[in-house]
Every structure is written in structure tokens, then in C-alpha cells.
Amino acid sequence: MNHDIRVPPEFDQQPCGGQAGPAAGRWRAVLSLGSACAVAYHLHRLGLADRTGPVDWFGTHDPDHVAHLLRSDFDGFMDRRTLLILGEHNGYWKVGDAANSIFTLHDFPQVGRKPKPLWKPPFRERVRRALDRVVEPAWRWLPWLRFPSVDGKRIPLPGYPEFRRRMDRRVERFLATARDPGPVLFIRRARQGRGEARLIHDAVQELRRGRPTGLLVIGLGEEYADDWGLPGIRNAAMPPEDPTRSESWRGSDEAWDRLFRGCRRDVSP
Questions:
Q1: Measured distance CA(85)–CA(155) in Å, rounded
Q2: Residues facing 214 on adjacent strands
Q3: How many CB atoms are located within 10 Å of the residue 166 CB?
Q4: In what order do the strands lie in the sheet with 213-220?
């Protein structure tokens, strides 16, 4: 396949060493493609993203399915017909989308429990969610909002209609931003090295249709430490997570700061 994505000149010419990080450049938007929650967390922390994307805070470990979602405009993403309750996680249901190999740990609190939210959304987003709950009709407890689980039970997820509307908004916003004519940088926390990078790169290329684009692939291990030399792609290694820390999934702020040093978001037309 053709891997020649047009990128802003500084993305191909700026070396990854020195003061600039591998994400350096001026971008109209910086978009997360998963697969770890840390990507979304640090983009928000550093002011590089102010809205949540469709795969943020989800488990998206299979790059084939992520590529399929990008190519299909997220067709069938978290559709109620393919949802399966996989278990429990810190007061939430672990809910998976079997068709797209995706799961969420943070969207469906168990009835009667109020777990601490993982991330406090912007005020306007919280207002929208509150309004969604106010207008939620009484039929939210009807059988069609009971979902199968791995142990054969059917468990109510009364928040699914609100969740569905939230996902639709995120997908619409993501696709509009991803097709912006200005330069856009995509970030993917990878697990399968160069093969995954090429796969995601091809899907992004189809989505962008020749517009100036960059893809930054980050991962754990020495495989990601040396420049792969793939056109339109940068790669970087992150230090391993510290299992003794309760918030180890976030990684090191210092390492993520270096990664995004010199990365700027330019929202002007």
C-alpha cells in the first residue's frame, strides 16, 4: 500500500532528539486513537484536547478493529445489539462491543453505586449529561435495556440511551475534526510495533484523503526507541508503568511532557 501521507514539513524534518519531542509541530487538532486511557488523560492535562473522542477511556487493543472503525465512520460502534457485559470493575460494569473488540470500564455504574469518576469533564459536558438524565423517559427500565452477560444473566443498563447519544456526539465531532483541511496529528498507544503502525497509518490516510497529517505511535519496549523511518509516522518509547503506584496507568508526567514538547495546537482557520 502507499504510505506517503502529506505532513507539515516540520513533522518530517524535525529530528525527534534535542529539545523538541516527537509530537512537535503546529497542529489544527491532536486526536487520540487509544489504546490506553493515558493518551486521553495527558492530552487533556497538557491542554492539547478539550473534548473527549469516541475511543478515549475505552479499551481498544485490537488495531484491526480500530482501523475498521476509522474506515467505516464508526459504523456499529457500541451498538446495543452487540454489547455484552463482561464483568465488574471498581463499581462499574465492564461492557464490551463484541463486533468491534472494544470495551469500556467507566460508563455504566452499577445500580445503587456512585463510583468516583475517572475524569471530570468540562462544565458544558456535565450540563449536557445532566439534561440527558432529566429528559430520560420512564421506559429506561424496560426489557430492551437489559443486556446479556457472560454468565447468561440479563443486566439492566438504564444509562444506555444517554450513553448512546454521548457516543453519537463524540463520533460526529471526531470525524468533523479528523477531516479538517489543516494539519492533524493522531496519537496511538501501540502494542504490536511496526505492523500496527502501518495498519493505523493506512486507515488514517483514507480518512484524511491527502490532507496534511501526522501519526505518532508510542509503546513500551526497545522496539519503539529507535526511529523506524516510516514516512508520515513517528514512534517513541515510553518508560514502563510502576505497578506500585495506584495511578500507574497514567505513566510519568515528565515522560509525557517530553513527548509533547514543541507540540502546539493552532485553531485559527
A1: 8
A2: 185
A3: 19
A4: 29-32, 184-189, 213-220, 233-238
**CB within 8 A of 176, min separation 6: which ones?**
none
**Grid cell digits, residue 12:** 518530517
pLDDT digits (tens, 9 = 90+) for 226-236: 999 999 999 99
Instruction: Return the pLDDT at 253.
Output: 93
Phi–psi pair at 67, nearest 5 degrees:
-60, -40
Instruction: Scan for cell 486507515, then name that residue.
Output: 203
What's the pLDDT tens digit per position in 90-140?
889 999 999 999 999 999 988 655 555 555 667 777 777 677 666 555 555
**0.90 exceeded by pTM:** no
Cα–Cα distance for residue pair 83/96, rounded to 1 Å: 6
Helix (H) / strand (E) element for 155: namely strand 154-156
DSSP 62-78: -HHHHHHHHHTTTTTTT
Q: Angle at CA 240, nearest 5°, toward 236 and 244?
A: 155
